[in-house]
Amino acid sequence: MIKINPYTPGAGIIPGYLAGRDNLIDSAKELLTYISLGQTQQSYIYYGLRGVGKTVLLNVIEKNAESNDFIYEHLEISENHDFKIDIAIHLQKIILRLSRIEKIKDKFKKVLGILKAFTLKIDDFDFTFDVDAITGQADTGNFQNDLTELFVQIGNLAHSADQKIAIFIDEIQYLKYDDFEALIAATHRIHQKGYPFVIFGAGLPKIAKMAGDAKSYAERLFEFVKVDSLREPYNRLALVEPAKRFGVTYTDDALDMIIEITDGYPYFLQEFGRQVWDYRDNDLINAESVNKAHDSFLSKLDDSFFKVRFDRATGNEKKFMFAMSELGEGPYEINSIASMLAKEQNQIAIDRANLINKGFVYSTRYGYLDFTVPQFSKFLRRIRSK
Ligand SMILES: Nc1ncnc2c1ncn2[C@@H]1O[C@H](COP(=O)(O)OP(=O)(O)OP(=O)(O)O)[C@@H](O)[C@H]1O
Ligand SMILES: [Mg+2]
């Protein structure tokens, strides 16, 4: 029996076989080429539910950027972290990498000095380089101005050095409104100037709306690309291809069953693949293997993928989500959730806002909510009945 398991459930892990993303990756490659040619286009933001493969996509594009000699940085926004600190750290790293290029040796100190002045405004920021702060440019205290100034300075530096820069920003929905607005404005400016500098972002569905609210030009500046669950034939290929390398095949009914259970969500396909691997019949995965693996698939998800998220909710937020799950499958009318909780709509407004901010639920359209985690309602009903 082969012990090695070819499936890769886990946050951001590039799978052995990346199914159904060729078009998305080709467009990203085209964008990188445009940047290389000095024809700056839009920046991309990928949005979709949890576990659909957004981080993987960013990671794959990063690899492409790297092999095209881009200088790049990856940052993940977290709920309780200060974006100003994060971005300053990463911009500093970019400037230092640019500093190795001989022909801009003089210019780079200036940009580092401007960044230093910016960081002096941030409490407890440890700026490690011995340069004089250059005040008056990126230290006005108005973050939108200051970030734009830094982006422009770095874009200009990259341009002089014949270098290209890409910044990858994951979990963008956790950016505070003002920070998001500043990022949009700064990106807008570098695109206007035609600098070789591009942003790739990823986050939950609410980011498309956040951008629309923040700046009227954001929808033109960023192309919002939906990342969805895998459809035929890619849902099958995600299961079949990794196994093929080990001479293992699936029966058609086994594939049908797994696709129905997982709805084609990449994380779930990987987890099912991982579990069913241990129940194969010699070199074959059949309906019986699927039946045997089903329980361990569910308990694995319940103990990890679902649980880590569920644990971040407060008591009231959990009640809110249980009420949603009791209504069946989403999207859920806010009115119905309130009725289920025996409350008025305005009494649940705070929990609703908190759940959206924490990324548990999102507004599918006016008056309706759904979970950002696929099959979360099933999970909630499972744990409730235990
Ligand atoms: N196109 C794909 N084909 C096969 N497996 C994939 C694909 N994309 C992602 N996966 C797998 O799905 C899982 C989830 O991927 P990833 O962490 O990128 O999702 P995500 O959208 O970033 O989720 P989250 O919102 O929770 O951060 C990983 O185990 C990864 O290996
Ligand atoms: Mg992710």
Written overview of the protein:
- The chain is α/β, with parallel strands linked by helices.
- It has three domains: 22-226, 3-Layer(aba) Sandwich (Rossmann fold), CATH 3.40.50.300; 234-308, Helicase, Ruva Protein, domain 3 (Orthogonal Bundle); 312-384, Winged helix-like DNA-binding domain superfamily/Winged helix DNA-binding domain (Arc Repressor Mutant, subunit A), CATH 1.10.10.
- It has 16 helices and ten strands.
- The protein has helices spanning 22-36, 54-67, 83-99, 105-120, 143-160, 177-193, 206-214, 218-221, 234-244, 252-262, 266-276, 287-310, 315-326, 334-340, 349-357, 376-384; strands at 43-47, 70-76, 164-170, 197-203, 222-226, 249-250, 284-285, 332-333, 361-365, 368-371.
- The strands form three sheets. Strands 2-3-4-1-5 form a five-stranded parallel beta sheet, sandwiched between helices. Strands 8-10-9 form a three-stranded antiparallel beta sheet. It has a two-stranded parallel ribbon with strand order 6-7.
- The mean pLDDT is 93.
- Residues 11-12, 54-55, 170 line the site of magnesium ion.
